[in-house]
Fold:
Amino acid sequence: MAEKVHGKLGHVLANTAAAKLFSLSGLFAVYKPKGPTSANVLNQLKEKLLAEAGIQKCARKRKKQILKIGHGGTLDSAAAGVLVVGIGKGTKMLSNILAGSKKYMAIGELGKATDTLDATGKVTEEKPYDQITKEDLERVLKKFTGDIMQVPPLYSALKRDGQRLSSLMKKGEAVEAKPARPVTVYSLSLQNFQPPLFTLELSSCANVQELTRTKQGPFTLEEHALHEDKWTIDEIAQSLEHCMSLLAVEPSLKKLKTEHSEESTVNCEDK
Structure:
């Protein structure tokens, strides 16, 4: 008898959690660590939520349920920081987030250039950097502020025929550089100068050692990005309430748009 009561109680709790999960709607932010891809992080988040709700993916789907969830801008696997997530109707707002402002903290290394422009690539050139001063760096900062034309790197998340340029490069395929595109850099500042480490490259060669997205839209790393231990239905519900209140200060997010949102769907059977 006790086992039956316990089983029914568990079923009720699972149904309640599932109902709450599928009622979630809006935008929130999670912390993406260095290593996994943005898609990996999104899948891990999705699986944790479905498991908490007692929903299992099955080969046979007698009852189909769809969890709409997506992210608003890829972070490279070697980068960390804020990853904005849309859930429910929030997936329709992701294109606006993708086009919105972002803030990064970068640590570079003078004296070495790599084929990928970051620490994961092979060193292709080495130059002396003893002549580089803090003043040199600060002068260069001014050249990269305002409205500039930026050529995307070949090792990037941009795609050709559905495949990332970085994946094609690693396969040894010939890849043409994408055309330069307009970018607005609102501000640049030198946070630290301890050669060979620096924040932007100069007349020496260099590569990016670390890249962290500290802000995307109104969502900051310190205040809004949920770490993995907070990836629960209740924590996300609370975060949604707080994060959605911030959208009033972002005019570009007031109007919902559906194009270019990265949605992923899960077909599940609720047992």
User: Anything to note?
Assistant: The helical segments are 2-23, 38-52, 94-99, 134-143, 165-170, 233-244. The first helix runs from residue 2 to 23.
